[in-house]
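#struct-pred
JK: can someone run the complex with iron/sulfur cluster? inputs below
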Amino acid sequence: MDLRNKVLEIHHRLCRAYGCPVSYFHALDPLSELVSSLLSHRTRNADSGAAFKALRARFPDWAEVAGAPVAAVEAAIVRCTWPEQKAPRIQSILRAIEAERGTLSLDFLADMTVEQARTWLERLPGIGPKTSAAVLSFSTLRRPALPVDSHHHRVAIRTGLIPAALAVGPSHRVLAAQLPADWDAQQIYDNHEVLMLHGQRCCFHRSPACGRCPLLDLCPFGQQRQGPHPVAAAVPQAEAPA
Ligand code: SF4
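RT: done, structure tokens with the ligand placed:
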């Protein structure tokens, strides 16, 4: 099977396992989604969600966050990891957006192509390809941009979609280029979500559950671990919380 067909086969099998279309979990404006993404880095969803809510409750708008004492922002987001680093980073990004655009909004990104919008976002301090794609895909912009998190990246390496030496950052453009050019935002979002879910629920970092994986016959890593196996029909189960 060539790479293009393999990408599609993996997508369709995982869509059958996890259910596509996957519901969007946010309906935030793009600036709010950007802040939410920054808070979520290396943080459990429940904790980053609580930090985001606390920040919104403490400050009536993003201008107030930008101008507040950094200690007050840090206190509001204490539920997320590294609030002492995230508070000044969020403030510096908000100030950079206001300095460049004259207003605190990212709604103008809707008028750019996906490539232009990602380039604009990635010029901001501390914004990489995962965050730029998340802002465009997860926010109300609903644009066809592919984020790659560590789970998605691990599954892509093990199934042979990308080489093991390709880091998460540069893998964004390689994995996006493998998807059909006419896929819409929902299909691109689904691709990210099902690969991420597969990494969370079956292709664990340690001890992947290859014996019940629907991708085993497509996966060199899994076959090396336990030999060729017919396609498993079972839907993967959730990994117990750490
Ligand atoms: S066969 Fe194993 S290593 Fe390959 S994708 Fe499935 S769980 Fe991951």
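RT: quick notes.
Residues 30-138 form a domain with the Endonuclease III; domain 1 fold (CATH 1.10.340.30).
Residues 109 and 120 are 9 Å apart (CA to CA).
JK: thanks, will look after standup
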